[in-house]
Design goal:
Strand content: 25-35%
Strand order of the largest sheet: 16-15-17-14-18-19
CATH topology of the largest domain: Rossmann fold
Helix content: 25-40%
C-alpha cells in the first residue's frame, strides 16, 4: 500500500468520496467497476477530455494521474475494448471513454484517434471499517444492483428515447421533452439505462428541468450489456417512480442494434408494457425506416414520433411521413412542438 496524489478523478467514481491523496494497492482485482489509479503516458489533440465528478470537462495531459474504473466498451464511433484478465503496477491500459473507463483497447474509430495510454499505479483503496486501517478495493456506484429487481412504476407514464445509433439525437430529444413538459407544469424525472459510464446526458436532462435523475452507473455498472440491461431499467424506473413524478423520460443509450442491451430491454414484456410512448431518433431517413421496422416487427412497438438528424430539414421530414406514416419533429429547431406532441400523448393515455 502506498500513497499517490491524483490530478483528476473521473465521473465514473462519482459515488466515492475520494480526496486528492489516495492509498493504492498492488493487488488489482480485474473486475468491472474496480477503481484504479493510472499515469497518462501521452498527449492527444482529439478526444482528449475527461468528465470529472463535478460534471466539468477537463483536458487530460501527459503525466496526469487519473482515477478511473476497469471496464469494457463496444462503441461504433469511439473505442472498443475489453476488461483485462490480470493487471499489476507498471502495466499499460487505455482510457476507453471520457467518463473514465479503463481497459484494453481492441479498435478505434479514426475520428477519435488512438486512445490515451496509461501506466497502472494500483487499485484505489477505501476504508469502510471505522477505526481500522483495513483497505478494500473501491468500486463505482452507490448501491449494488439486485439479482431480481421488480418493476413498479406506480402508474407513472414513461416516455422512452430509442435510437438507431449513438449520436442519433436521443439526449437532445430527451432534453427538449423534459424542458417543455416542465414548462407545462409536469414534475419530470429522467434516467439513462444503457451505455458506458458518462454523466453528461443526465446532467443535461437536469439542466433541462428534470427534478430527479438516475443513471445505470449509480448501481456500479460501468458498461451495460444484454445481461444486466433489463434489471437496470427496472431498478431505474422503480426508483424514480417512488419519487412520484408526473412522468419519467427514459433514454436508451446506443442503438437498437448494439452490445449495450437495448434489444434485451425492449424484449422484456414488463418493461415494454410500462412504456407509454417511444420516440425514435435516427440519423437519416433510411435509418429511420430501419429503426421503425425493428420496433414494429421485433418488439410490436409503434413509434410515437421520429426525431434526430433525420429531421434536420423538410426533406427528411417528408420522407419519414411518406415512407413510414409517422410524424417527424426536430428536437433542436422545434423542441416545443416535440414536447407538445408528447404532452398530448400523455393526456390521451390518461383519459
Amino acid at each position: 500500500m502506498k500513497s499517490v496524489v491524483v490530478d483528476k478523478i473521473a465521473s465514473v467514481a462519482q459515488h466515492n468520496d475520494l480526496a486528492s491523496e489516495l492509498r493504492v494497492s498492488a493487488d488489482i482485482p480485474c473486475e468491472e467497476g474496480v477503481l484504479v489509479a493510472v499515469r497518462v503516458l501521452n498527449n492527444k489533440s482529439r478526444y482528449n477530455q475527461l468528465e470529472l465528478t463535478s460534471g466539468r470537462m477537463a483536458t487530460v495531459n501527459q503525466g496526469d494521474i487519473v482515477v478511473g474504473a476497469l471496464g469494457h466498451r463496444k462503441a461504433l464511433r469511439g473505442y472498443s475494448g475489453h476488461l483485462p484478465t490480470e493487471l499489476q503496477p507498471g502495466d499499460t491500459i487505455q482510457l476507453l471513454n471520457i467518463g473514465g473507463v479503463l481497459g484494453m483497447c481492441d479498435s478505434a474509430n479514426p475520428d477519435v484517434g488512438p486512445p490515451f495510454e496509461c501506466k497502472v499505479l494500483g487499485t484505489v483503496l477505501s476504508f469502510p471499517y471505522l477505526g481500522e486501517r483495513i483497505g478494500v478495493p473501491a468500486r463505482a456506484g452507490s448501491a449494488p444492483l439486485g439479482d431480481d429487481v421488480a418493476l413498479d412504476t406506480s402508474g407513472v407514464p414513461v416516455v422512452a428515447m430509442a435510437g438507431t445509433c449513438m449520436d442519433s439525437g436521443k439526449t437532445a430529444a430527451a432534453c427538449a421533452i423534459v424542458g417543455r413538459l416542465r414548462h407545462l407544469g409536469f414534475h419530470v424525472a429522467a434516467c439513462k439505462a444503457t451505455g458506458v459510464s458518462l454523466r453528461r446526458d443526465v446532467l443535461a436532462m437536469e439542466d433541462a428541468g428534470a427534478t430527479e435523475t438516475m443513471i445505470f452507473s449509480d448501481f456500479g455498472i460501468v458498461t451495460t450489456t444484454a445481461a444486466n440491461g433489463p434489471a437496470l431499467t427496472r431498478a431505474l424506473l422503480s426508483g424514480l417512480a417512488a419519487q412520484r413524478p408526473d412522468v419519467i423520460v427514459l433514454e436508451l443509450g446506443d442503438g437498437l442494434l448494439g452490445a449495450y442491451g437495448v434489444e434485451a430491454i425492449l424484449s422484456d414484456s414488463g418493461i415494454r408494457d410500462a412504456l407509454t410512448a417511444v420516440v425514435l431518433c435516427a440519423n437519416d431517413p433510411v435509418s429511420a425506416w430501419g429503426g421503425a421496422k425493428i420496433l414494429r416487427e421485433s418488439f410490436d412497438i409503434e413509434p410515437a414520433v421520429v426525431s434526430g438528424p433525420a429531421t434536420d430539414n423538410d426533406v427528411g421530414i417528408q420522407q419519414i411521413d411518406e415512407r413510414l406514416s409517422l410524424p417527424a419533429i426536430n428536437a433542436l429547431s422545434n423542441g416545443v412542438a416535440l414536447g407538445d406532441k408528447v404532452a398530448a400523448l400523455l393526456k390521451e393515455e390518461a383519459s
